[in-house]
Amino acid sequence: MIGAVAHPTFAYRHGGRIGLPRQLILAVGAICAVQPSAAFAASNNEVRISGLSDLAFGSITNLNADNVLSESLCLYAKAKPTDLYRITATGSGAGGSFSLNSGSATLAYDVQWSASPNQASGIQLAANQPLTAQPNGASDSGCTSGSPTTASLIVILRSSALAAATSGTYSGTLTLLVAPE
Amino acid sequence: MLGISKWSALLACCALAVPNAAMAATQGTLGSTSTGSVSISATVPGRVQISGLTDIAFGTVDPTSAASQAENVCVWSNTSGRGYQVTATGSGASNAFTLTDGTNTLPYSVEWAGSSGQSSGTALSTGTALGSLSSTAINPTCSAGPAASASLVVKMTAASLQAAVASSYTGTLTLVVAPQ
Q1: What is the pTM of this model?
Q2: Which among A48, A63, A173 has the least Cβ separation from residue B28?
Q3: Which CATH number fits domain B48-179: 2.30.30.40, 2.60.40.1090, 3.40.190.10, 3.30.70.141?
Q4: Inter-chain contact B44–A163, Cβ cutoff 8 Å?
Q5: How many CA atoms lie within 13 A of B64 on its CB side?
Q6: Considering only residues 2 to 41 of chain A, which have any Cβ-Cβ distance to chain B shorter than 8 Å?
Q7: Are residues A72 and A158 in the same domain?
């Protein structure tokens, strides 16, 4: 009944002229009635992470120092009322840990996040654990207006991990999941 | 004309055929959640380090008997087998293992052991690498794990001491380690 009341024109056009059974008319009408409210909710809580680039440390020349790579990216969050977001990082190591691998050898790394661009340090992330209450800094989902980047991803290879690592070429994937708050 | 599912299958095949395709960063889309990913890579080159060396002072030696001094050193290697080679050179003529008082010379021999606490090892020839050694060090300076991983032994024979002019002799022994 809800569908039939919300969309009398739809029901009339399909039910009256084409002659579909009344049960089917009601079902289709109900779907149409639900869709607008679902779309309305999604438009109020949207996020997007973009502008990501691969991080290649190359050959590490100094194993006795921390090696840091950071990149600025676009993080857009529209979430009423405060436009906050949470971010969860997952590595490709065992259990989602932050580690690279070279065959059976592993190389651990740290991940930090900053809700500002062009940062060389930020808040330490734990694998699979969300960092909450991060403020949106983008004015649109692609950062096409305003600042082209709004957040920083920082990856650190600690000297202690480098000294313990077997020589080799290591690689891995870091996945970032963003959700509105 | 290919449908969406066929295009998807074709793209998947291309991705499999190009290994590096999986290494590229992915961008998130606008939605109730958004997921992106980056590939991270680093190359850790083969490295070694020798540390824990101390000067060797025989003091006044009795020429009627051989003299020997050994010391523990730390050699660290990060290769898969923790392997390394060591090359020693002296400060004598043509890098010979000799001490000098400025005029006269006093020969000595050098031995290397791939573990600490040894009073003898494999004899080294100046400028010739001794390889196939493996370190137990887990830290470049042995600040963690074993405190030392090798032994350096310097010896002087009684014959050499008896042949030497009484004097004070000094020299420098240089050790070069390389990953292996």
Answers
A1: 0.74
A2: A48
A3: 2.60.40.1090
A4: no
A5: 0
A6: none
A7: yes
How do residues A66-115 score in pLDDT, each as one tens digit? 999 999 999 999 999 999 999 999 999 999 999 999 999 999 999 999 99
Q: Do B31 and A42 touch (CB under 8 A)?
A: yes
Q: Minimal Cα distance from B138: which residue of A? A: A164
Cα Rg, chain B, nearest whole Å:
28
Please give, rounded to a whole number of angstroms, the shortest distance from the CA of B88 to a CA of chain A.
25
Residue A103 region by backbone torsions, left for phi larger than 0, else alpha for psi between -120 and 50, else beta: left
Q: What is the CATH number of the domain that holds A67?
A: 2.60.40
Domain that holds residue A19: 2-44
Cβ atoms of B95 and B147 closer than 8 Å: no
Cross-chain residue pair A57–B138, CB shorter than 8 Å: no
User: Do A57 and A11 share a structural domain?
Assistant: no
Q: What is the ipTM of this complex?
A: 0.77
Nearest CB to B45: which of A51, A60, A178? A60
